[in-house]
Predict the structure of ABC transporter domain-containing protein.
Amino acid sequence: MTLLEAADVTVRFGGVTAVRAATVDAAAGQVTGLIGPNGAGKTTLFNVITGLQRPTRGAVRFAGEDITRRATHERARRGIARTFQRLEAFGSLSVRENVLVAAEIHHRHGRRRRRHQQSPAQVAERLIARVGLDRYAHRPADTVPTGIARLLELARALALDPRLLLLDEPSSGLSTAETEAFGELLRELAGEGKAVLIVEHDMDLIMRVCDRVTVLNFGAVIASGTPAEVRADTDVQRAYLGGAE
């Protein structure tokens, strides 16, 4: 089921068109990749989906509802969470406290309340263990390595119990082994019914974990399909992957 549709989105900043009539979908139970060269408009499109940037034209629909004019916090309450290319952790708080803040917010304001719901502290502990942060839990967030801070942002996003998870360069700073484990976690999250939309430059990771991939270049979608279809696309090879004559 298509959970997210950002349809015919255009974003202009003065005379510069950052995103040009782009359409991106994300389905529940799937990992969707969004790739392209630096400056292609990927993060701008994420900002449109999460409400940080108003589109010049186009619409964003989530679970059948037009949310184009909804505020960022309203989208979060509907089940949209994200991480950022530039790390946004609370540096003076510990890793555990960062995740706990998000769990507390969701406990108080989340729309999907369940019987026998775990306490915020229980949610934080569960997610810290799930993403592999146990050994860093008591350390201030601004003292951990970049890759660990990426996992912290993921745990914090998951604390909101999202239906749609947007990840912006999440594997940056991870070791090879950590990237392997991270890819497995993404597949697990999709298997639980979440829609995952990931911006990533690690093509091995993208081709391994994604069900579908959309490619942006100069703000426009130049290809969309399975990883194999995208890898074989000559326009994509010329613009990003390399290998085409």
